[in-house]
Amino acid sequence: MELKLLGSKSVSASLLFQNGGTTSSSFRHGVSIRFSPQLCSCRGVFPRVSENEYLCKIGIGSSDQENLVKGDYVYRINEVNGAGSSIFSRNLRVLGFFDDEYDGVVVDPKRLPSDPDAFASILRFSLTHWRRMNKKGIWLKLPLENAELVPIAVKEGFKYHHAEPEYLMLTYWIPDGPCVLPGNATHQVGVGGFVINDNNEVLVVQEKYCSPAFAGLWKFPTGFIDESEEIFKGAVREVKEETGVDTEFVEVIAFRHAHNVAFQKSDLFFICMLKPLSTEIKVDDLEIKGAKWMPFMEFVKQPLIQGDCMFKKVIDICIARLRKRYCGLYPHQLVSAFDGQTSSLYYNDSDTQDTNCIGN
Length: 360
Description:
Shape: elongated
Strand order of the largest sheet: 9-10-11-13-12
Order of helices and strands: EEEEEEEEEEHEHEEEEEHEEEHHHEE
Radius of gyration: 31 Å
Distance between the termini: 86 Å
Structural class: alpha+beta
Protein backbone atom coordinates (compact mmCIF):
# COMPACT_ATOMS: atom_id res chain seq x y z
CA MET A 1 0.00 0.00 0.00
CA GLU A 2 1.29 3.49 -0.81
CA LEU A 3 0.09 6.80 0.56
CA LYS A 4 0.09 9.51 -2.11
CA LEU A 5 0.61 13.17 -1.31
CA LEU A 6 -1.88 15.24 -3.36
CA GLY A 7 -1.98 12.43 -5.88
CA SER A 8 1.46 13.33 -7.28
CA LYS A 9 3.90 12.80 -4.44
CA SER A 10 4.44 9.90 -2.08
CA VAL A 11 5.03 10.32 1.66
CA SER A 12 7.26 8.13 3.81
CA ALA A 13 6.46 6.83 7.27
CA SER A 14 10.15 6.47 8.08
CA LEU A 15 11.13 10.13 8.44
CA LEU A 16 10.02 12.87 10.75
CA PHE A 17 11.23 16.38 11.62
CA GLN A 18 13.84 16.61 8.86
CA ASN A 19 15.91 19.78 8.68
CA GLY A 20 14.30 22.50 6.61
CA GLY A 21 10.69 23.51 6.04
CA THR A 22 7.68 21.29 6.43
CA THR A 23 4.56 20.54 4.48
CA SER A 24 1.32 20.52 6.44
CA SER A 25 -1.14 17.93 5.14
CA SER A 26 -4.03 15.67 6.06
CA PHE A 27 -6.20 12.96 4.57
CA ARG A 28 -9.51 13.87 3.02
CA HIS A 29 -11.43 11.81 5.57
CA GLY A 30 -10.11 13.56 8.57
CA VAL A 31 -6.71 12.72 10.06
CA SER A 32 -4.20 15.52 9.54
CA ILE A 33 -0.39 15.39 9.71
CA ARG A 34 2.70 17.55 9.28
CA PHE A 35 5.33 16.11 6.92
CA SER A 36 8.86 17.26 6.21
CA PRO A 37 9.56 17.93 2.52
CA GLN A 38 12.03 15.06 2.27
CA LEU A 39 9.31 12.46 2.95
CA CYS A 40 8.70 10.37 -0.14
CA SER A 41 6.84 7.09 0.33
CA CYS A 42 5.08 4.75 2.73
CA ARG A 43 5.01 1.25 1.29
CA GLY A 44 4.23 -2.15 2.71
CA VAL A 45 1.39 -4.21 4.13
CA PHE A 46 -0.38 -2.65 7.10
CA PRO A 47 -2.96 -4.21 9.43
CA ARG A 48 -6.52 -3.12 8.81
CA VAL A 49 -8.40 -1.55 11.74
CA SER A 50 -11.76 -1.26 9.97
CA GLU A 51 -13.03 -0.69 6.46
CA ASN A 52 -10.63 1.63 4.61
CA GLU A 53 -8.62 2.25 7.81
CA TYR A 54 -5.04 0.97 8.19
CA LEU A 55 -2.27 1.22 10.76
CA CYS A 56 1.07 2.64 9.73
CA LYS A 57 4.10 2.97 12.04
CA ILE A 58 5.06 6.63 11.87
CA GLY A 59 6.20 9.53 14.02
CA ILE A 60 4.06 12.59 13.53
CA GLY A 61 4.73 16.08 14.82
CA SER A 62 2.48 19.06 15.31
CA SER A 63 2.88 22.76 15.79
CA ASP A 64 1.09 22.13 19.08
CA GLN A 65 3.89 20.25 20.84
CA GLU A 66 1.71 19.58 23.90
CA ASN A 67 -0.41 17.29 21.73
CA LEU A 68 2.50 15.59 19.92
CA VAL A 69 1.61 11.97 19.16
CA LYS A 70 4.04 9.19 18.29
CA GLY A 71 3.55 5.55 17.44
CA ASP A 72 0.99 3.73 15.29
CA TYR A 73 -1.50 5.86 13.39
CA VAL A 74 -4.67 5.15 11.48
CA TYR A 75 -5.22 6.48 7.97
CA ARG A 76 -8.28 6.33 5.77
CA ILE A 77 -7.56 5.19 2.22
CA ASN A 78 -10.06 5.54 -0.60
CA GLU A 79 -8.59 2.66 -2.58
CA VAL A 80 -6.70 -0.46 -1.64
CA ASN A 81 -3.45 0.84 -3.15
CA GLY A 82 -3.91 4.32 -1.72
CA ALA A 83 -3.82 6.04 -5.09
CA GLY A 84 -7.22 7.59 -4.58
CA SER A 85 -6.32 9.21 -1.26
CA SER A 86 -5.77 12.94 -1.11
CA ILE A 87 -3.99 15.07 1.49
CA PHE A 88 -4.67 18.67 2.36
CA SER A 89 -3.70 21.26 4.97
CA ARG A 90 -4.41 20.58 8.67
CA ASN A 91 -2.59 19.43 11.82
CA LEU A 92 -2.74 15.92 13.29
CA ARG A 93 -3.22 15.85 17.06
CA VAL A 94 -5.31 14.32 19.82
CA LEU A 95 -7.79 16.29 21.84
CA GLY A 96 -6.33 17.94 24.92
CA PHE A 97 -6.98 15.60 27.84
CA PHE A 98 -6.08 14.53 31.35
CA ASP A 99 -5.68 10.98 32.64
CA ASP A 100 -8.03 10.04 35.45
CA GLU A 101 -7.24 7.59 38.26
CA TYR A 102 -9.19 4.77 36.61
CA ASP A 103 -7.19 4.51 33.36
CA GLY A 104 -9.69 6.80 31.72
CA VAL A 105 -9.53 10.12 29.90
CA VAL A 106 -11.07 13.49 30.74
CA VAL A 107 -11.14 15.73 27.66
CA ASP A 108 -10.16 19.33 28.38
CA PRO A 109 -13.24 21.42 27.43
CA LYS A 110 -11.10 24.57 27.17
CA ARG A 111 -9.06 23.16 24.27
CA LEU A 112 -11.79 21.88 21.97
CA PRO A 113 -11.60 22.75 18.27
CA SER A 114 -14.28 25.29 17.38
CA ASP A 115 -14.64 24.02 13.82
CA PRO A 116 -17.00 20.99 13.61
CA ASP A 117 -15.08 19.36 10.73
CA ALA A 118 -11.79 19.67 12.60
CA PHE A 119 -13.42 18.30 15.75
CA ALA A 120 -14.81 15.29 13.88
CA SER A 121 -11.44 14.26 12.47
CA ILE A 122 -9.49 14.95 15.66
CA LEU A 123 -12.06 13.11 17.80
CA ARG A 124 -11.90 10.08 15.50
CA PHE A 125 -8.12 10.03 15.67
CA SER A 126 -8.14 10.58 19.45
CA LEU A 127 -10.40 7.56 20.01
CA THR A 128 -8.03 5.39 17.98
CA HIS A 129 -5.07 6.74 19.95
CA TRP A 130 -6.73 6.15 23.34
CA ARG A 131 -7.86 2.69 22.30
CA ARG A 132 -4.28 1.73 21.50
CA MET A 133 -3.20 3.19 24.86
CA ASN A 134 -5.65 0.75 26.53
CA LYS A 135 -7.70 3.57 27.97
CA LYS A 136 -11.17 2.78 29.33
CA GLY A 137 -13.77 5.48 29.90
CA ILE A 138 -13.75 8.79 28.02
CA TRP A 139 -15.44 11.85 29.56
CA LEU A 140 -16.31 14.55 27.05
CA LYS A 141 -17.70 17.79 28.47
CA LEU A 142 -19.15 20.06 25.78
CA PRO A 143 -19.89 23.62 26.94
CA LEU A 144 -23.06 25.31 25.73
CA GLU A 145 -21.12 27.34 23.18
CA ASN A 146 -19.92 24.06 21.59
CA ALA A 147 -23.40 22.55 21.26
CA GLU A 148 -22.91 21.98 17.52
CA LEU A 149 -20.30 19.32 18.39
CA VAL A 150 -22.83 17.11 20.22
CA PRO A 151 -24.21 15.25 17.15
CA ILE A 152 -20.65 14.62 15.95
CA ALA A 153 -19.70 12.97 19.24
CA VAL A 154 -22.91 10.92 19.27
CA LYS A 155 -22.21 9.72 15.73
CA GLU A 156 -18.80 8.46 16.92
CA GLY A 157 -20.49 6.40 19.66
CA PHE A 158 -20.62 8.75 22.66
CA LYS A 159 -23.60 8.44 25.03
CA TYR A 160 -25.39 11.16 26.99
CA HIS A 161 -24.46 11.15 30.68
CA HIS A 162 -25.95 14.32 32.16
CA ALA A 163 -26.65 17.96 31.35
CA GLU A 164 -26.32 21.18 33.31
CA PRO A 165 -27.29 24.71 32.24
CA GLU A 166 -23.74 25.41 31.04
CA TYR A 167 -22.70 22.07 29.50
CA LEU A 168 -23.54 18.55 28.34
CA MET A 169 -21.47 15.56 29.50
CA LEU A 170 -21.00 12.57 27.20
CA THR A 171 -19.11 9.33 27.76
CA TYR A 172 -17.50 6.62 25.65
CA TRP A 173 -16.56 3.14 26.92
CA ILE A 174 -13.68 1.56 25.02
CA PRO A 175 -13.21 -2.01 26.39
CA ASP A 176 -15.42 -4.89 25.33
CA GLY A 177 -18.07 -5.76 27.86
CA PRO A 178 -20.45 -3.74 30.02
CA CYS A 179 -19.67 -0.10 30.72
CA VAL A 180 -18.74 0.43 34.38
CA LEU A 181 -18.61 4.24 34.36
CA PRO A 182 -20.69 5.68 37.23
CA GLY A 183 -24.11 6.83 36.14
CA ASN A 184 -25.71 10.21 36.52
CA ALA A 185 -26.97 11.39 39.93
CA THR A 186 -29.87 9.20 41.02
CA HIS A 187 -31.44 11.40 43.72
CA GLN A 188 -32.82 14.82 44.41
CA VAL A 189 -32.66 16.10 48.01
CA GLY A 190 -35.38 18.12 49.71
CA VAL A 191 -35.84 19.61 53.17
CA GLY A 192 -38.79 20.63 55.31
CA GLY A 193 -38.62 22.96 58.29
CA PHE A 194 -40.59 22.18 61.45
CA VAL A 195 -40.55 25.55 63.24
CA ILE A 196 -42.48 25.93 66.49
CA ASN A 197 -42.45 28.95 68.81
CA ASP A 198 -42.91 29.39 72.55
CA ASN A 199 -46.66 29.82 72.07
CA ASN A 200 -46.89 26.30 70.65
CA GLU A 201 -47.55 27.68 67.17
CA VAL A 202 -46.04 26.08 64.09
CA LEU A 203 -44.88 28.06 61.04
CA VAL A 204 -46.89 26.89 58.02
CA VAL A 205 -47.37 27.86 54.37
CA GLN A 206 -49.79 27.29 51.52
CA GLU A 207 -48.13 26.76 48.15
CA LYS A 208 -49.30 28.79 45.17
CA TYR A 209 -48.78 25.89 42.76
CA CYS A 210 -49.78 22.41 43.90
CA SER A 211 -51.94 19.41 43.06
CA PRO A 212 -55.70 20.05 43.47
CA ALA A 213 -55.72 17.28 46.09
CA PHE A 214 -53.56 19.47 48.35
CA ALA A 215 -55.36 22.77 47.78
CA GLY A 216 -55.95 24.49 51.12
CA LEU A 217 -53.36 22.43 53.00
CA TRP A 218 -51.19 24.28 55.51
CA LYS A 219 -47.79 22.55 55.56
CA PHE A 220 -44.18 22.96 56.62
CA PRO A 221 -41.99 25.23 54.44
CA THR A 222 -40.14 22.92 52.03
CA GLY A 223 -37.67 23.09 49.17
CA PHE A 224 -34.64 21.56 47.48
CA ILE A 225 -31.02 21.64 48.60
CA ASP A 226 -28.72 23.71 46.40
CA GLU A 227 -25.52 22.26 44.94
CA SER A 228 -22.77 21.96 47.60
CA GLU A 229 -25.20 23.05 50.32
CA GLU A 230 -25.47 21.33 53.70
CA ILE A 231 -28.84 19.86 54.67
CA PHE A 232 -29.11 21.95 57.84
CA LYS A 233 -28.20 25.15 56.00
CA GLY A 234 -30.68 24.39 53.23
CA ALA A 235 -33.51 24.01 55.74
CA VAL A 236 -32.75 27.38 57.32
CA ARG A 237 -32.48 29.03 53.90
CA GLU A 238 -35.76 27.62 52.57
CA VAL A 239 -37.72 28.79 55.63
CA LYS A 240 -36.20 32.25 55.28
CA GLU A 241 -36.95 32.45 51.55
CA GLU A 242 -40.58 31.34 51.83
CA THR A 243 -41.63 33.07 55.06
CA GLY A 244 -38.99 35.67 55.94
CA VAL A 245 -38.52 34.07 59.37
CA ASP A 246 -34.98 33.58 60.67
CA THR A 247 -34.30 30.22 62.32
CA GLU A 248 -31.60 28.14 63.93
CA PHE A 249 -31.13 24.46 63.09
CA VAL A 250 -31.81 22.02 65.94
CA GLU A 251 -31.66 18.55 64.38
CA VAL A 252 -32.91 16.21 61.67
CA ILE A 253 -36.03 14.57 63.05
CA ALA A 254 -36.59 12.04 60.26
CA PHE A 255 -36.12 11.55 56.54
CA ARG A 256 -38.12 9.91 53.77
CA HIS A 257 -36.76 7.92 50.83
CA ALA A 258 -39.02 7.61 47.75
CA HIS A 259 -38.47 6.45 44.17
CA ASN A 260 -39.63 7.38 40.66
CA VAL A 261 -40.56 10.88 41.76
CA ALA A 262 -39.37 13.54 39.29
CA PHE A 263 -37.96 12.39 35.93
CA GLN A 264 -37.80 8.85 37.36
CA LYS A 265 -35.26 9.97 39.99
CA SER A 266 -35.34 8.94 43.63
CA ASP A 267 -36.02 11.48 46.36
CA LEU A 268 -34.56 12.05 49.82
CA PHE A 269 -36.57 14.41 52.02
CA PHE A 270 -35.22 15.54 55.41
CA ILE A 271 -37.55 16.95 58.08
CA CYS A 272 -35.56 19.38 60.22
CA MET A 273 -36.54 20.89 63.55
CA LEU A 274 -35.69 24.59 63.63
CA LYS A 275 -35.80 27.17 66.41
CA PRO A 276 -37.34 30.53 65.40
CA LEU A 277 -35.16 33.62 65.88
CA SER A 278 -37.76 36.07 64.56
CA THR A 279 -41.54 36.17 64.22
CA GLU A 280 -42.41 38.60 61.41
CA ILE A 281 -43.62 36.88 58.24
CA LYS A 282 -42.78 38.13 54.74
CA VAL A 283 -44.32 35.83 52.13
CA ASP A 284 -42.45 34.89 48.96
CA ASP A 285 -45.07 35.87 46.35
CA LEU A 286 -43.44 33.79 43.61
CA GLU A 287 -44.07 30.39 45.21
CA ILE A 288 -46.14 30.88 48.36
CA LYS A 289 -49.84 31.73 48.53
CA GLY A 290 -49.80 32.39 52.25
CA ALA A 291 -47.85 31.85 55.49
CA LYS A 292 -48.75 32.17 59.17
CA TRP A 293 -48.17 30.95 62.72
CA MET A 294 -50.79 28.26 63.34
CA PRO A 295 -51.71 26.62 66.67
CA PHE A 296 -50.04 23.24 66.63
CA MET A 297 -53.17 21.19 67.39
CA GLU A 298 -55.11 23.03 64.68
CA PHE A 299 -52.34 22.12 62.26
CA VAL A 300 -52.43 18.47 63.34
CA LYS A 301 -56.22 18.18 62.94
CA GLN A 302 -56.24 19.10 59.26
CA PRO A 303 -58.05 16.32 57.33
CA LEU A 304 -55.17 15.88 54.89
CA ILE A 305 -52.77 15.39 57.79
CA GLN A 306 -55.01 12.92 59.60
CA GLY A 307 -55.84 11.00 56.43
CA ASP A 308 -52.27 10.38 55.29
CA CYS A 309 -50.14 7.83 57.15
CA MET A 310 -46.88 9.52 56.11
CA PHE A 311 -47.94 13.00 57.25
CA LYS A 312 -49.42 11.61 60.45
CA LYS A 313 -46.27 9.67 61.32
CA VAL A 314 -44.12 12.76 60.81
CA ILE A 315 -46.38 14.71 63.18
CA ASP A 316 -46.21 11.88 65.74
CA ILE A 317 -42.42 12.07 65.62
CA CYS A 318 -42.51 15.86 66.03
CA ILE A 319 -44.81 15.53 69.05
CA ALA A 320 -42.53 12.89 70.60
CA ARG A 321 -39.59 15.26 70.14
CA LEU A 322 -41.47 18.12 71.80
CA ARG A 323 -42.34 15.84 74.73
CA LYS A 324 -38.68 14.81 75.13
CA ARG A 325 -39.37 11.22 74.13
CA TYR A 326 -37.31 11.23 70.95
CA CYS A 327 -33.93 12.46 69.73
CA GLY A 328 -33.03 13.30 66.17
CA LEU A 329 -29.71 13.54 64.33
CA TYR A 330 -27.20 16.37 64.61
CA PRO A 331 -24.43 17.11 62.05
CA HIS A 332 -20.82 16.72 63.15
CA GLN A 333 -18.04 17.99 60.91
CA LEU A 334 -15.41 15.31 60.27
CA VAL A 335 -12.53 14.88 57.81
CA SER A 336 -12.28 11.52 56.05
CA ALA A 337 -8.94 10.04 55.05
CA PHE A 338 -10.57 8.63 51.90
CA ASP A 339 -10.92 12.02 50.22
CA GLY A 340 -9.35 14.46 52.68
CA GLN A 341 -12.52 16.56 52.72
CA THR A 342 -14.76 17.75 55.52
CA SER A 343 -18.15 16.05 55.63
CA SER A 344 -21.22 16.25 57.84
CA LEU A 345 -21.91 13.02 59.71
CA TYR A 346 -25.42 13.06 61.18
CA TYR A 347 -25.92 11.06 64.36
CA ASN A 348 -27.47 11.21 67.82
CA ASP A 349 -25.01 12.52 70.42
CA SER A 350 -26.49 12.82 73.91
CA ASP A 351 -23.31 14.48 75.19
CA THR A 352 -23.52 17.54 72.99
CA GLN A 353 -27.11 17.83 71.74
CA ASP A 354 -30.01 19.93 72.94
CA THR A 355 -30.73 19.51 76.66
CA ASN A 356 -34.38 18.95 75.75
CA CYS A 357 -33.42 15.69 74.10
CA ILE A 358 -34.26 12.44 75.85
CA GLY A 359 -31.50 10.97 78.01
CA ASN A 360 -29.94 14.32 79.00
